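Follow-up to my post from last week.
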Amino acid sequence: MQLDDLLTQVDNHRDELLTLVKDLIRFPTESPPARNTEEAQSFIAEKLREIGFSIDQWDVFPHDPNVVGTLKGEQPDVYQSLIINGHIDVAEVENDVGWTQNPFEPVVKDGRIYGRGTADMKGGLAGALFALQLLKDNGIVLPGDVIFQSVIGEEVGEAGTLECCEKGYKADGAIVVDTSDLAIQGQGGVITGWVTIKSPTTYHDALRRNMIHAGGGLYGASAIEKMVKLIEGLKELEQHWAVTKSYQGFPAGMSTINPAVIEGGRHAAFVADECRLWITVHFYPDENHMEIAKEVEDHLLKVSEADPWLRHHPPIFKWGGKSMIEDKGEIFPSLNINQEGKLVQQLTRAHSNILATKPQVGMSQTVTDGGWLGEAGIPTIIYGPGDLRNAHSTNESVEVSQLVDFTKVMLTFIYQWSHTKKEEL
Ligand SMILES: [Zn+2]
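User reply:
Got it. Predicted complex:
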């Protein structure tokens, strides 16, 4: 069986591909609220089993299991292995006003398939699964291993993919089939953090005069007022970054520090003894989230040094987290791509074969789980159907012809990657 014959089969079996996308859309795996992916994940696990994968399934959170399938190659020591990664959760449908149909009852209309998750990213999951299905149906046994990861929680910064990496899943290359409009992409990163200012003493409101006026004699401060100083400091750092940092593929000033949420004070009868600021920091692909966190800390500690009260009551930092829902924190490591590497080269070739044009290679304007795989030392890229305008949007949709093209590219790429010897890397 030639690859060309296999590719015609994608066209011949187009309706089956669409049925698979629709089946996935019908599982309402919204996140938040999350904890609702069990059925969808069992469905994927069953599909993978039919193709010959062995399944590793575990709860990351109750009712939110990860599914990792492994399809053993015939000569896994000799031929390249591949990880295909995607998330099963979809963005919340806050209200379905404006949707022309139920977001979880997909319809095909005017060459597009509509429904929550079509673009982000059940279309990608379905296309990759379907490519593997066709290989199996045509009796093709791959020489290298294929690992299929269907993870939870990506929409709320949960550690689905991180747990796959922590479990030790590795490969010679990884593709995150998330929304990229068939461009090959890396990404910048995001880390959230809490900055807390805390006074060791709680003062009654009546003592404010003593605290702030000449001769008052009381060494104390309002945590809220001191936080204003740190927010100003963050703005200065953000501006400094905007001027001094850049990365090809991004507009200037992408490295932002957003003071997103502020909480503080206990009651109008007291001077605020605690203030907490929740910040979101974006950084470039050549930067690491731990270094960025340290840059912010160092700067705020310098700002604090220049203040007579903060100097002795410096802010406390808590960075990242494994879930925006559970611990109000998240990390998306950045992802650098190696344009000369085998992964980009082979995928470019597969894409060009199908679309008769070279793919764009660049940077995603959003974040995906790709950063975790990259951080685990696996050459990784983002490549999937659907565009970001559609991700998370009302009447989310993906073009059917793009979905078909994606499936063909994946079929070609998986086949060729798996038939490439490791030492050729
Ligand atoms: Zn996504």
